[in-house]
Structures are given as C-alpha cells and as structure tokens.
Amino acid sequence: MTNGITNPASVPDITLADGCGIPQVGLGVLRIDDEGVQPVVEEALAAGYRHIDGAAGYNNEGGVGRALAAAGYTAGEARASLWVTTKLRDSEQGYDSALKAFDRQLGLLRLDYVDMYMIHWPTPFDWRSGETWKAFVRLRGEGRVKTLGVCNFLPEHLERLHAETGEWPTVNQIELHPTWQQREVVAFCKAHGIAVEAYSPMARGSDLNAGGGTIGRIAAAHGVSPAQAILRWHIENGTVIIPKSVHADRQRENLDLFGFALTPEEHAAIDALDGPTRAGHDPLTFTYA
Ligand SMILES: NC(=O)c1ccc[n+]([C@@H]2O[C@H](COP(=O)([O-])OP(=O)(O)OC[C@H]3O[C@@H](n4cnc5c(N)ncnc54)[C@H](OP(=O)(O)O)[C@@H]3O)[C@@H](O)[C@H]2O)c1
C-alpha cells in the first residue's frame, strides 16, 4: 500500500468545535522559498493533498498562491474542496495591523477566503493576542476566514485569551512528535474542545531513528517507512498533522496512512518514546517577529 497514489477521500476530516471539517493530513511549507514552493504545492495537490499549512512568516505565500492558481484551486468546487491555513506575523499582531496584514496575505494567496487564520506565537512578553483576536472575529464575521486558531499556546495563554475574548480557538498547532509529546497541553486542549495539530510531526526528521530503532522495527513489521509509522501514530491519536516534504514520493508516502494500523503494543511503544527535548522554539521566549 505504500507509495501509491492516495485517494484524497481516504483522508478523513476532523470536525472542529465550530463544525468546520479540517483534513487530518496537510502539507507544511516551512523552509521552502517563494520560487521553490510553487512546484512543491502543485505536486502535493496532484498527489491528493487537500490541506496546505502556510504562514506569512514563511515568506512564500505568493508562491503558494501561484500554485493554487495554476492548479485551478482558487475558485469554485476545487476551492471548496481545499483547506488553506495561514498565520499572522507576530510583528503584525494588534487590531488594525492584523486586518491590514490579512488583506495582503489573502492577495498573495489569490483567494477570497482562507479556511483557518492563526496567531503564530503567543509572545507573552509582548501580549497582544486579545486585540488581535477581535480582528480575527471580524474577519470570520465577514466570511473571509472560516475558523480561528492559534499556534504554540500553552494552557496559560489559552486561559488568558479566553478571559479576554470569551472564546477558545478551534485549533492549537503545537510542536508534537514521539520524543516531545506535550501531554499537559494536549490534555488541556482536549478538555476544552480545541483540536490539536502537530507541527514538526517527525521532529524535522530526527524522530525517524527514535528509540534506538523502535520506529524502524515497527515500520518494517508493516512494510511501511519510518515516517509512515510515526504519522500513523499521530493519526490514531486523533491529531491533525502537517508533515513537510519537497519530494513528491515522500509527499505521497506521508499521505498514505490509512491502509494499516499499529497494534496496541506498537502504539504504546511509541508513546514510551516521550522525552524532555524539543526540536523547535520555546513559546515563552520565542518570536518570529
Ligand atoms: N506553527 C509553528 O510555529 C510551526 C513551527 C514549525 C513547523 N510548522 C509547520 O509544520 C510543518 C512541518 O514541520 P517541519 O517541517 O518542521 O518538520 P517535519 O514535517 O517533522 O519534518 C520535515 C523534514 O522531514 C523530511 N521528510 C519528510 N517526509 C519524509 C519521509 N517520508 N521520509 C523521510 N524524511 C522525510 C523532510 O525532508 P524533505 O523536504 O527533503 O523531504 C524535512 O527535512 C512545517 O512545514 C510548517 O508548516 C509550524
């Protein structure tokens, strides 16, 4: 079942608290330049991806927009079948600045609306998420955004946003992979109806060798790749995933996760790989600016 062309219909939607359905697997486009991203997104669409995860901070929304236009996904039924996420730059948080940024981003993406708009980092040392959220609510009211999310929010940031706005985001996109499982954050999200979306779902590749060969052994038992074994574990946890690859064969592999299942023992063995080391940045101190 590996490396075949996946039927997009085989990727289920996760239903969010507001009723929106997000495809459980998407393509991440971080660290791909504006010129390079166009063919990568076009290949992903051809492979069956119906969910693209981008951000203003990735400096490639123009290239994503060119790919969507070239492949015919900016309008009509094709557009309706696609989920596009983008994120606000930290430096553009605030009411007026968020509205202005969104206009620019939508233009670059060549779209009339995005499916999800996210606050990229909580920047608690320069907290403006409450004001930003008011702009997000306005965009949602205008139909230019379907659902509102955040990234990298710890429970204290979710509580603070809720206290200021009366709302929980529908999605919290966090670093999450076998060696960094953030169980406290995940439990808080589940208790408050917030869907968890895993970024760096393979720890940027370093978890492929996790556990001194544990992942490799599980993969071999199913005739799949280590990437597929990890991504299947996420799927079984009900997590939305956005693995990034610039290679068409890997993109297909990363989408092809629905023809096998981990045994309870295998799933537990991946659970047991949790560790103390993140691959990315600390939300308490980091800003993309
Ligand atoms: N909200 C945030 O703050 C935040 C932060 C980080 C990331 N993200 C999002 O999450 C997405 C994914 O995270 P990520 O790019 O950091 O890490 P990742 O998806 O865990 O790993 C990507 C790395 O794994 C390699 N890879 C992909 N598929 C593979 C396969 N089947 N076999 C072997 N290697 C494979 C890729 O190489 P090739 O490309 O060469 O195939 C790349 O080096 C990003 O693109 C972005 O959209 C969000």
In short:
The protein is built from eleven helices and ten strands. The strands form two sheets. The protein has an eight-stranded parallel sheet. It has a two-stranded antiparallel ribbon with strand order 1-2.
Describe this structure in words.
This protein has 289 residues and is an alpha/beta fold. It has one domain (20-271): TIM Barrel (Alpha-Beta Barrel), CATH 3.20.20. 39% of the residues lie in helices and 15% in strands. It has eleven helices and ten strands. It has helices at 34-47, 61-70, 76-80, 95-109, 129-141, 155-165, 183-191, 214-222, 226-236, 248-255, 264-271; strands spanning 13-15, 21-23, 27-28, 51-53, 83-88, 114-119, 145-151, 171-175, 195-199, 240-241. It has an eight-stranded parallel β-sheet. Helix 1 (34-47) packs across helix 2, helix 5 (129-141) crosses helix 6 (155-165) and helix 8 packs across helix 9 (226-236). The longest helix has 15 residues, at 95-109. It binds NADP nicotinamide-adenine-dinucleotide phosphate. NADP nicotinamide-adenine-dinucleotide phosphate is lined by residues 28-30, 53, 120, 151-152, 173, 199-205, 208, 225, 227, 242-247, 250, 253-254, 280.
